[in-house]
Structure formats: structure tokens, C-alpha cells
Write a structure and sequence with these properties.
This protein is an alpha+beta fold and about 200 residues long. Helices cover about 35% and strands about 25% of the residues. It is globular.
């Protein structure tokens, strides 16, 4: 019987050291992993991020169930299911390993799928380090399910004592959720303070 080759992963201590310095890995089209350290950096202000009235109304009308850390591997896999993605097999295995070590977390959104059954329709995952949370990726399979996961995560981070919610890069979607850019030097000061916060996911 042949044994399947294991997917190489980034060691937990290497990842945590990198995140503590503001760096994070992404897979590129050439098949290599690169460390990113953006300037400027996109962040969400946990004090002001809230769903707008239209989304809040839609969220109340949707029959959804929200959980945390129930289906982390499935959330990462779903986030990778797109034509162009930086989440290759190495990234997936790396973050599942980080989750098992207690440093990566997910929020899952489920919809009813027949009597007593639920289907995963949205989610978001990222890395926690002290009072800093680094958002990595989100997905949706029904309209607004990803936004539901995002706002459920933001609410949880506020209640758990987190002070920094990193979005890495600004794009039209993250901007629509409230992300703003800050200079890298300011981000590193925010990160240094957040790492000392007594937060627990």
C-alpha cells in the first residue's frame, strides 16, 4: 500500500512569530509561498463596524445559525473554492494545524437543510494573537451569509476584549464592510499594544 505524501506546512512557531511582526503568508500563481507585509495596512475599527440598516434587516429575516470553531477545516476549504485563490493545499494544512494549536479560529453560518439538518452557507477564519485578530478569508454560498459571519465575528471580538481587527489589504468588498487603511508604522504600534491586551477568543 502506497502512503500519500504529506503536504508541507509552515511550523506554528514560525507563523506566530511572523504574525507578531505584521507578516502573513500567501500562495502565488508561480506555486511559491511569499510573506506579505503591506504598507498601508487595512484594518477594521471594532468600535464602529456595524451592519447597515438594510443588512441588519436582512440578517433578522434569514433563518441562520451561527457557531464558532465547529467546522474550521470546512471553512478554509470553502474559502479556497474560487477560480483564483492564494489558499493552496499548503495554506489549508498550515492553518488547520494552527487551529489545532489553538491560534486560528472560524465563525460558521448554517442554514436549515431539511428537518434537523443544517448546511454550511458562509464563514470566516483568521488568526488570534493576544488582542489582535488577523482576518484571512471569508466565503458565502447564499447572499449575505459571508457578511453575517463577518459581523458575528466582529461582535464576538468586541465582547472578548480584542482591540485590533486586521483586514490586511483594502479592496472594494472590505471597504464596503468598513475597512480603512493606516500606515504600516501605525499598524505596528497598534499591533504591539493589541498583543498585550487580555483577550481570549
Amino acid at each position: 500500500m502506497s502512503r500519500s505524501r504529506e503536504v508541507p506546512v509552515i511550523p506554528v512557531h514560525t507563523l506566530l512569530e511572523a504574525y507578531g511582526e505584521g507578516r502573513f503568508p500567501m500562495a502565488h500563481a508561480d506555486g511559491e509561498l511569499y510573506w506579505h507585509d503591506p504598507d498601508p495596512r487595512a484594518v477594521f475599527d471594532l468600535g464602529t463596524v456595524r451592519p447597515n440598516a438594510r443588512l441588519a434587516r436582512a440578517m433578522r429575516q434569514m433563518d441562520l445559525h451561527i457557531t464558532r470553531d465547529v467546522a474550521f477545516p470546512a471553512v478554509v476549504e470553502a474559502c479556497a473554492e474560487r477560480p483564483e485563490t492564494w489558499i493552496d493545499a499548503r495554506i489549508q494544512a498550515t492553518y488547520v494545524q494552527l487551529h489545532r494549536a489553538g491560534h486560528a479560529h472560524s465563525v460558521e453560518v448554517w442554514s436549515a437543510d431539511g428537518p434537523g439538518r443544517r448546511q454550511l452557507v458562509g464563514g470566516i477564519y483568521g488568526v488570534a494573537l493576544g488582542g489582535a485578530f488577523f482576518g484571512e478569508s471569508m466565503f458565502h454560498r447564499v447572499p449575505n451569509a459571508g457578511k453575517v459571519a463577518f459581523h458575528a465575528l466582529a461582535q464576538h471580538l468586541r465582547s472578548a476584549g480584542f482591540t485590533l481587527f486586521d483586514s490586511q489589504y483594502l479592496n472594494p468588498f472590505t471597504a464596503s464592510l468598513g475597512a480603512v487603511e493606516v500606515p504600516r508604522a501605525r499598524f505596528l504600534r497598534m499591533l504591539a499594544a493589541a498583543k498585550q491586551a487580555p483577550a481570549c477568543f
